Amino acid sequence: MNTPAHKPLPEGYGRVAVLMGGSSAEREISLQSGQAVYAALRRKGIAAHAIDVDKDCVSTLAANHFDRAFIALHGRGGEDGVIQGALETLSIPYTGSGVLGSALSMDKVRSKWLWQAHGLATPEFMEINDEADLPEAGKKVGFPLMIKPVQEGSSCGAAKVENEEALRPAWLAAREFDQRVMAERWIEGGEYTVGILAGAALPAIRLQTPRVFYDYAAKYEDNTTQYICPCGLDAQQEQALAAVALEAFARVGADGWGRVDLMQDAAGKSWLIEVNTIPGMTSHSLVPMAALEAGIEFDELVIRILDTSMQQVDIERRLAV
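The structure assignment produced for this chain is given below.
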């Protein structure tokens, strides 16, 4: 989606529902994102309304006649196509990716299948359906490896596994977040993230942490995590990284805005890890950080993301086909 050439006046956006919270493992981070977005929209004079999503959310949205929705929900129920489908049923335009792009991006296994089919590099992996698959996962993927839930964000339930003895405990811990678990080859090297906004890549950020990897604690609790932007790559290397990120984003059907996470090994090869269709939106989150490096202040970023809802195909016409 491209940003409209002529932005509407604040009243042109109508009544905007800012959807946040929900019931996923990322609820608290979503509330922070949602409140930051809500405050920015109000500062811009837009009629924003904060909604903590619960089981009555659809009824609430229908009863209040919202003109569009800014989705600030992280994790399942928000990034997996569920809320997007509900909004389409209600004919409410919304920010970011549609049902298909959201669902595919949330499913790490299916994302990787698509990337592999299009020749994009992603680490070797295997879905672990039950305990009997553990020995094969160790042999196929090799140690060290990552164990992670297939459909979870913020590194919830993810762990680095060094040997076969540690495999089962890590698998059991990941299953606390999702019945579907995967093993993924560990890539040693630099960790990068590339924000996507309206079809363009934002400046890449290199992530450095003294922890084993950029886990939940490194993201939200550890003050020693470093966010390096500019990322330290030369212009040609960063352009190549951005190109890979943009193609990966498009291949899973993602749209509007989001973030692509990658690893770069010692040989300089980039490996795709995952797509986030609704990244964190606090003033300290990665996409706002990259946007600021590109000269886009937080409030303006929020408006540009809201603009993605203005570019959707007319939902009523689409549903009537």
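Interim note for the steering committee: The chain has twelve helices and 13 strands. The CA atoms of residues 72 and 257 lie 12 Å apart.
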